[in-house]
Amino acid sequence: MATLRVPALMKMYIGNQSEVTLQGTTVAETLNDLIFRYPAIKFHLYDDHGELRRHINLFVNEVNIKDLNGIQTPICDFDRLILLPSISGG
Amino acid sequence: MNPELSHEEIQRYSRHILIPDVGLEGQRKLKAASILVIGSGGLGSPVSLYLAAAGIGHLGLVDYDRVDETNLQRQIVHGSSNIGDFKVDSARSRLTDLNPNIQIDTYNTPFTSENALGIAKNYDILIDGTDNFPTRYLSNDVAVMLGIPNVYGSIFRFDGQASVFYAKKGPCYRCLFPEPPPPGMVPSCGVGGVLGVLPGIIGTIQATEALKLVLGIGDPLIGRLLLFNALDMSFDFVTLKKNPKCRVCGPNADIKELIDYDEFCGVPGHQHEDEPNLANGQITAVELEKALAGKNPPLLLDVREPHELEISALTGAVNIPLGGLAGRLAELDPGREMVVFCKTGIRSQRALDLLAAAGFKRVKNLKGGINSWAEDVDPRLPVY
Ligand SMILES: [Zn+2]
């Protein structure tokens, strides 16, 4: 079980929580578990081609999955994932 | 050689000079520094106040907007007596009062591809205090092309981000976010709201980073991004690496000069929330009132966020927030006449464009949004 931190921008899609505990042995499986439980968030994560949207970054224990193995990055118990979209407010 | 300090300046900055890491020499570095603050709003307010107070010798301020009442909840460089004034003029008078020893140059203009390099070339550091994606990409690219740091901050509701994007020593903003979000998916603070103190926290972090860069002390946020959440009072850090495919700072960069950032982001960077740039398919509040009383009343589609419905609402309207609309088109009947509305008509125009692209042909946008309905039809509703 890993925890995923979700930004203010998206927490309305996961029952207004900022953190959820998820199952899965890879990033892809963990996100599938998230979408299975909170289908409304899918559109905000993936584009029409099923790719993670380009303005969204996902970090596993503070490292960007782009610098690891992408959505195939393995996930262990107690790993901490952070979802980071771009925001523009100032 | 850094400039000398007068006796008055030595007294003014004594609490800096007492710190061994700063000292007289550090304070002279601050006096010699030139920093450009892009945006005199939520972030630009604390940034410019603290940089002026700290004795940064040359500050530049860029903004084209005027102070309005909704700014004062967080834009603390401005006051009630400044409502209606240009933000750069209002900020300059406050900053000059705070510290008359510094030079302040103001640019009362949108920061654009045409003028950005000309303005920024006079400065050592940029501070990104803008409120929209086009100007954020522009600020980043300008900093990369000039080889100077871009001290980044961004806010939304209770969340803040801060980093130092300095392509000479680490990643840039585009390394992290190669592309902006699809138009309408990530709301601005004018749409989504922001806790007033949040830009204070993120802006003071930006000012801190700028001072560290000038002084050459500490460990700047280069290659690290701070994620702040005010509700949990949490500070998370993530590691950022240079993206080898970055189009502006990578080895095969293809962006060698400034581009059209409004086109790149699909949204205009400089548009007043209250002055929507509306295309065809509009209906005024008075016309809508008549249409609703007619035989075939249109379906009302409210694309605001759910909590805005507590401020004001129209009876019978269906609520689908703009960010989720593209995923919920199946809930709408393309054959039915529809009127889309939001607060002022900007989000609903994006919704209309999205619906039109999806084949909806009988859609109109309520001009001026529910605020104009409140002003022209139903004064019981508040304007917000
Ligand atoms: Zn880059």
Characterise this structure:
Chain A has 90 residues and is an alpha+beta fold. Chain A has a single domain (2-85), classed as Roll (Ubiquitin-like (UB roll)). Chain A has 2 helices and 5 strands, in the order ββααβββ. In chain A, strands 2-1-5-3-4 form a 5-stranded mixed sheet, covered by helices on one side. In chain A, strand 3 and strand 4 (63-64) form a beta hairpin. The model of chain A has no long low-confidence stretch (mean pLDDT 94). Chain B has 384 residues and is of the alpha/beta class. Chain B has 2 domains: 33-265, Rossmann fold (3-Layer(aba) Sandwich); 282-376, 3-Layer(aba) Sandwich (Oxidized Rhodanese, domain 1), CATH 3.40.250.10. Chain B is built from 15 helices and 13 strands. An 8-stranded mixed sheet of chain B has the order 3-2-1-4-5-6-7-8, sandwiched between helices. In chain B, 47% of the residues are buried. The chains are: A alpha+beta (90), B alpha/beta (384). The interface between A and B is large, with 28 and 53 residues. Zinc ion binds next to helix 8 of chain B.
Task: Give a summary of the structure in a few sentences.
The complex is a heterodimer of chains A (90) and B (384). Chain A is of the alpha+beta class and 90 residues long.
Oligomeric nature of the chains = heterodimer
Mean pLDDT of chain B: 93
Biggest β-sheet description of chain A:
5 strands, mixed
Percent helix of chain B, as a range, is: 25-40%
Strand order of the largest sheet of chain B: 3-2-1-4-5-6-7-8
* CATH topology (level 3) name of the largest domain in chain B: Rossmann fold
Cα radius of gyration of chain B in angstroms? 23 Å
Large-scale geometry of chain A: globular
Cα Rg of chain A: 12 Å
**Stretches with pLDDT under 50, minimum 5 residues of chain B:** 273-279
Question: What is the helix tally of chain B?
Answer: 15
